[in-house]
Amino acid sequence: MARTRISVTPRERSATPNGNTGRLKKVLEDEERTILRAIRILVGRFKQRDVFANPDAVKDYLRLQAQGLPHEVFAVMYLDAQHRLIEYERMFRGTLAQTSVYPREVVKRAMTTNAAAVVLHHNHPSGVCTPSRADEALTQALSTALALVDVRVLDHVITSDEGALSMVERG
User: Average pLDDT in the 49-64 region?
Assistant: First the structure.
């Protein structure tokens, strides 16, 4: 896991008694360690059982992966034939409102991990999880590309700090 640098904003500093940023910084660092530990526990559980035993757990896991990011990321959960997690990988980093995704790279990585299926994931820093037309077109393009190598796209989940949307559940 990459270590996240904790910084204190002026607003947070003013919210602390006497501007005591040391205590606030320690609390934020403790929270960050707790979040990273939760992610490690979830990864371990997903590697041991069918990832779709509980779709809400998948959405919660994916929300944790992109929580608080000020930019878009596109990631993929690579799954084995029993839909257990092989690997979660952030593949592309974008700007505030978009990310360039290259289907060829997703297919190459699916082949490298020997994945039988994938769950696509990206975040919307704006907080709105509604998929755009570009999101829908990307899902279709990736589904078509991955189908050529017998890798099934099980879902495309869009997350924000406020929630998560499964494109499969949405229909």
Answer: 77
